[in-house]
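Quick review question:
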């Protein structure tokens, strides 16, 4: 990673096989997966578990559109909750045309520069885009 790049949420992403993947927590006690990575399972409070790579695709549970600037983001800002196949709900930005948005929309996680600081530092993060030709296995 170049010096002038940072990760928005350092526990959220890891590089595997030269690609960024999103990480969650898989509980050994109850078997549930949560996001972000936690020390104690939010479902059963067990501390026994490990980091787990999350699915790259999911469906929009709910979303909202902000039409005024917020921090470094330019409007319209679309953010929402994405349900992943492992039962985890992830919050993130959705990069899509507003007219394409709907609950249940199939989306795919992408990573990239989500904003640039005034000193030129690029902030890397994740966001979701609609699956144009299906998400490969998600119905
Ligand atoms: Zn648990």
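Suggested answer, residue by residue:
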């Amino acid at each position: 990673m170049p010096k002038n790049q940072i990760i928005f949420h350092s526990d959220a992403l890891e590089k595997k096989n030269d690609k960024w993947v999103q990480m969650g927590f898989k509980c050994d006690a109850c078997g549930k997966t949560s996001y972000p990575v936690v020390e104690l399972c939010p479902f059963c409070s067990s501390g026994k578990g490990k980091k787990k790579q999350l699915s790259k695709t999911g469906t929009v549970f709910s979303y909202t559109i902000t039409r005024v600037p917020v921090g470094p983001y330019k409007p319209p800002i679309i953010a929402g909750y994405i349900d992943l196949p492992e039962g985890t709900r992830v919050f993130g930005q959705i990069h899509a045309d507003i007219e394409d948005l709907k609950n249940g929309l199939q989306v795919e996680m992408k990573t990239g520069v989500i904003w640039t600081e005034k000193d030129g530092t690029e902030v890397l993060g994740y966001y979701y885009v609609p699956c144009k030709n299906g998400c490969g296995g998600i119905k």
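Why it works: The radius of gyration is 16 Å. The chain has a mean pLDDT of 90.
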